Amino acid sequence: MDKKRLSQKIERFKRDIEVYSEEMKDASDGWWAEVSEEEREYAFLSVISRLYTGVLVENKSIHDTMSDTFDFDEPITIACISCGFDEIYNRLRNE
Question: 46, 58, 91, 95: which has the fewest Cβ within 10 Å?
Answer without folding.
Answer: 95
